[in-house]
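Severity: low
Component: inverse-folding endpoint
Summary: output formatting inconsistent between runs
Steps to reproduce: submit the following structure tokens with default settings.
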């Protein structure tokens, strides 16, 4: 989502390229270009001006070390200010209580119900017993949607068919959670098309009745400054604890992420993208600043990989590699783990330098579908013993997967190459260990 802003800021910093020192003239020119970049990213004029004034004040008169170029110093100053504007540190949610109650609020279409499901999975992964409560009696499909999500993530959903009293439903959900030993209840509430009196009266009464340990306001990042203004209007009426930005994978310029903390005074706690239940991230200002400035976000990438890491499966895979028994089924399982990590292009963009390189490259998130179809069209024996796949088998596999024989041939060739590389890497590793042992 920050591709355009990253590109514009990079152009702004080039103004200082080749300069021997930072001066008021070249700083003013750079800051003016940065302000334009922020405004284009849908950051409010007031926030953009305040940001640039602080950058300019810090930059002018800065003593630049011989080893540091003015351009590099400006990048450092902008990075620090971006982090400060977005909230400095990650802010976790308060789920302590008996049970801890998380109240999820927002307008219609902001993604409240989907976020509630994602948050349920996030809490469950921490080893905490969690329950969802369907209290959106305004939108008929919301209750059914939450039931489906609850089933998908293996979390129970408290509902009362035909009951139109969200306060009563919420109170009974909390009571049931307490009696059955649940540590957290996540309450999905009704929304409206705008922050109106009816919505505020309902959510205020609900807040008073269940006394949540955490109140989160969900906003659609694609609405830009409207998201910021909506969050401010809601916070003025009900003092919430944090903001959740959804649809971060959409056509958004990032203005909401950069402005909310400065305007509303409340931290962004989570960012959500896509429909997959795993696609929820804690908001880390420093990591977002790194991504905006093209430095990547390796820490988040590693964390996502660790979430999908199966230690037992890894040990078994290591044994197979040592015996040269890596199969198509192992290959298929690795693909599934990669897919669970999130959008492929977003993941690649977390690698330093890759975001810019992939800017105009269209990476289809369904790119693995053809490979998966080919693998699943093989017999179990063929997946374990690809060397038996002759011409007639290749034709059958191609027909079964809806692909062509050349595509099957290509995958077999790529797989064989991958297996050789992995075997070489494994053998090399073992040889190093043996050398170390002899010493």
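Observed output (run 2 of 3):
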């Amino acid at each position: 989502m920050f591709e355009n802003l990253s590109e514009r800021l990079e152009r702004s910093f080039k103004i200082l390229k080749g300069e021997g020192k930072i001066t008021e003239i070249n700083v003013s020119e750079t800051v003016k270009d940065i302000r334009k970049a922020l405004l284009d990213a849908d950051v409010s004029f007031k926030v953009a001006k305040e940001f640039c004034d602080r950058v300019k004040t810090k930059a002018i008169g800065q003593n630049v070390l011989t080893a540091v170029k003015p351009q590099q110093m400006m990048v450092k100053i902008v990075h620090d200010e971006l982090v400060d504007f977005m909230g400095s540190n990650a802010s976790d949610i308060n789920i302590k209580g008996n049970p801890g109650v998380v109240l999820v609020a927002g307008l219609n279409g902001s993604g409240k119900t989907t976020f509630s499901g994602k948050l349920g999975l996030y809490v469950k992964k921490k080893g905490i017993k969690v329950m969802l409560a369907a209290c959106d009696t305004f939108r008929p499909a919301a209750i059914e949607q939450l039931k489906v999500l609850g089933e998908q993530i293996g979390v129970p959903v408290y509902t009362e068919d035909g009951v139109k009293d969200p306060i009563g439903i919420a109170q009974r959900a909390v009571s049931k959670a307490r009696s059955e030993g649940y540590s957290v209840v996540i309450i999905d509430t009704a929304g409206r098309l705008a922050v109106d009196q009816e919505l505020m009266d309902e959510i205020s009464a609900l807040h008073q009745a269940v006394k949540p340990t955490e109140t989160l306001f969900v906003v659609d990042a694609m609405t830009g400054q409207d998201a910021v203004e909506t969050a401010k209007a809601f916070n003025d009426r009900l003092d919430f604890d944090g903001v959740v930005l959804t649809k971060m994978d959409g056509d958004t310029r990032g203005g909401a992420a950069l402005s909310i903390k400065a305007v509303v005074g409340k931290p962004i706690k989570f960012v959500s993208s896509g429909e997959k239940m795993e696609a929820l991230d804690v908001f880390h200002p420093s990591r977002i600043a790194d991504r905006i400035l093209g430095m990547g976000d390796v820490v988040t990438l590693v964390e996502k990989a660790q979430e999908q890491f199966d230690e037992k499966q890894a040990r078994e895979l290591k044994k197979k590699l040592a015996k040269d028994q890596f199969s198509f089924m192992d290959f298929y399982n690795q693909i599934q783990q990669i897919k669970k990590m999130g959008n492929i292009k977003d993941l690649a963009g977390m690698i330093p330098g890759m975001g810019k390189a992939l800017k105009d490259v269209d990476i289809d998130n369904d790119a693995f579908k053809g490979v998966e179809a080919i693998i699943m069209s093989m017999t179990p024996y063929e997946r374990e013993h690809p060397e038996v796949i002759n011409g007639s088998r290749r034709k059958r596999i191609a027909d079964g997967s809806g692909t062509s024989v050349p595509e099957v041939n290509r995958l077999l060739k790529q797989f064989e190459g991958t297996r050789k590389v992995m075997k070489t890497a494994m053998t090399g590793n073992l040889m190093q260990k043996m050398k170390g042992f002899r010493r």
